[in-house]
Fold this sequence. Notes:
- By secondary structure, the protein is of the alpha+beta class.
- It has a single domain, classed as BirA Bifunctional Protein, domain 2 (2-Layer Sandwich).
- Helices cover 25% and strands 25% of the residues.
- The strands form two sheets. The chain has a six-stranded mixed beta sheet with strand order 1-2-6-9-8-7, with helices on both faces. Strands 4-3-5 form a three-stranded mixed beta sheet, with no helix packed on it.
- The radius of gyration is 17 Å and the shape is globular.
Amino acid sequence: MDCLSPPSPPPNAPKNYQSLHPSVRRLGLCDYLLTWEAMKTFTLARTAVTPDEIWLVEHPPVYTLGIAGKREHLLNPNTEIPLFKVDRGGQITYHGPGQLVAYLLLDVKRSGWGIRHLVEQMQIAVINLLSQLGLNAHSRKEAPGVYLGEAKIAALGLRIKNGCCYHGLSLNINMDLNPFLAINPCGYANLKVTQLADHGVNAPIDTIADQLLPHLLQSLL
């Protein structure tokens, strides 16, 4: 689906589907800057009755540096992978093909949730997905995200504007992890990074997206 095309409910959805669930966009492989600009545009244009949305996407190789990010966490400044300073929370991370990114465009004020609760719910959704896949994952209070053992498999970062959030989470599925060696992932030196393929889960990214979605909906509704 084109990044700018309107989302649509699934086949046979009830008439009140839009009021019950966020609309879902499946964007495929999409340019990071284009997606980021589309998120900001959507968030600025929404009203009190605008339905929430979830965007599922992959990106070409890119490093992103959050609001609190320090450029010294990019250990190899001569890398050919572009680096963008963005408006989400958190430090530096990497996005690339084989990584599922779920952007959550939610009216936080309408939901009545605080940002900490929202982050916890995002982590729970990923942990529940990994449990479904037979993996025992956990979160850390001092370092938001989801981990398998000591290795990070999912990163989180949000931006709140006008009572609404955008950005979201990334889940490593089956990708080239070498670009993580050129950074301190999420600002932590020597932090190990892992992916589903390294733990015997070899499902296509679209399948994992379909499996993650109900966990996100359950956590966010």
